[in-house]
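Appendix B: a complete holo record

For completeness, this appendix reproduces one full record from the ligand-bound portion of the collection. The bound molecule is flavin-adenine dinucleotide. The inputs are the chain sequence and the ligand SMILES; the output is the full three-dimensional arrangement of the complex, encoded as structure tokens. No fields have been trimmed.
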Amino acid sequence: MDSAHRVVIIGSGFGGLFAAKKLKRADCEVTLISRRPGHVFQPLLYQVATGILSQGEIAPATREILRGHRNTTTLLGDVTAIDLTTRTVTSHLGTEVTVTPYDSLILAAGAQTGYFGNDHFEPFAPGLKGIDDALELRARIFGAFEMAELQATPELAKPWLRFVVVGGGPTGVEIAGQIIELSRRTLKKDFRRIDPRQAEVILLEGGDGVLAAFGPKQSLKAGEQLRKMGIDVRTQAFVKDVDGHGVTVASQDGTEEYIASNCVIWGAGVEASPLGRQVAEQSGAGVDRGGRVEVLDDLTLPGHPEVFVVGDMIALNQLPGVAQVAIQGGKYAAKTIRGRLEGKPHPGPFQYFDKGSMATISRFRAVANVGRLELRGFLAWLAWLFIHILYLVGFQQKISTLGHWAVAFLGRARAERTFTVEQSRGALTNSRGPRDRTKAAGGTRSELPREDAA
Ligand SMILES: Cc1cc2nc3c(=O)[nH]c(=O)nc-3n(C[C@H](O)[C@H](O)[C@H](O)COP(=O)(O)OP(=O)(O)OC[C@H]3O[C@@H](n4cnc5c(N)ncnc54)[C@H](O)[C@@H]3O)c2cc1C
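The structure of the chain with flavin-adenine dinucleotide bound, as generated:
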């Protein structure tokens, strides 16, 4: 096997995992390197944060998923350097430094939370991009109710019972919807000194409406629905500052307001993995404001047909930062490499097939756009349920997720409310430093369906 073609895949998200799956039994050696041991199903992170699902349900071990792939080695490691000249990838795990050579590279390192250049917001307003974020948010959300219960007066309890969610895209809407359901249904009888139903959820959106990418009608209806549920939806609301005790918001006419809250959640922007800039600089490819790489129409870098960039890291034809772009991109890259090895002709440019988009608003309510069809309410929620179970990786995960959904949606309980002392320490005192995240350029995906511009 000395002369086998070496394919390195960076990332075990949608792009990386589906690329690896497509290379099963291909005549090559595949090495998948990821900084996380699991394949995180990001669309359900908000359910981990709000106690519906456990992290294991949405993040099965990549090693286990790929154990039947005899040609694939899975390595845990944080990739810090990609050298396009020597064709090597350097990764770190603890004190171990690993250099992996490649003949073909698929870069699928995704994106991280972006703060529009205001990284000092981060310790006070965590985003929701990974398991660590979801568990921290869980500690912050459930911990806030605990802190409220300890306050001497209702006035002191108020900032603990006021949740501010920044960004009216799907992430913000989903998390806001779940917090209000938590307070109105799940927790309503669990406390003695406070009434959890008094909790306020404020959703701040910089644009004219929530879920703007779903079109004006869906946006309007979603806004109405959220308000009906008790969420204070504020549009044209621009976050100016976030500190340990609240948020300063400016409205369009320039008036500023300070909202006191001890639980602020950021769902307003993303920026591509800094590895994108690294390869762009070496290849002369451009990057957009969000750090996404301007790839060629076959997802490769200029002058480097052996390097593919897929998923949330690419700027191509205004493609949105959604799972299907990553899945289809990963499969396309793998198919191209496979075709080359088998002497097949080039498959032509990457063509994205839009299968539609959906977001939940609450239990039994969602919005879904499929082609020109706009669904709302229970039907959209059923479609959401079906699609998410379909794409969730792992049979065990599907079964146990269905069980947890029955508990949460048919009953009023949430099976996953636990958080650790360590998670609560930073969360409840707002004392943790910024998460260990490599800095990339500030920016947003403002033209994308999933962007949640504040
Ligand atoms: C909260 C949330 C909800 C979402 N909901 C939806 C939805 O409902 N529908 C939808 O279509 N899309 C949704 N998305 C977007 C969708 O999840 C992303 O578009 C998709 O995950 C992108 O896939 P990817 O492979 O490019 O990146 P990711 O899935 O983010 O995977 C990136 C991988 O790279 C690894 N990695 C990163 N940096 C390094 C490094 N330096 N070294 C090694 N490994 C590294 C990560 O650990 C990860 O495994 C949501 C996203 C979020 C955050």
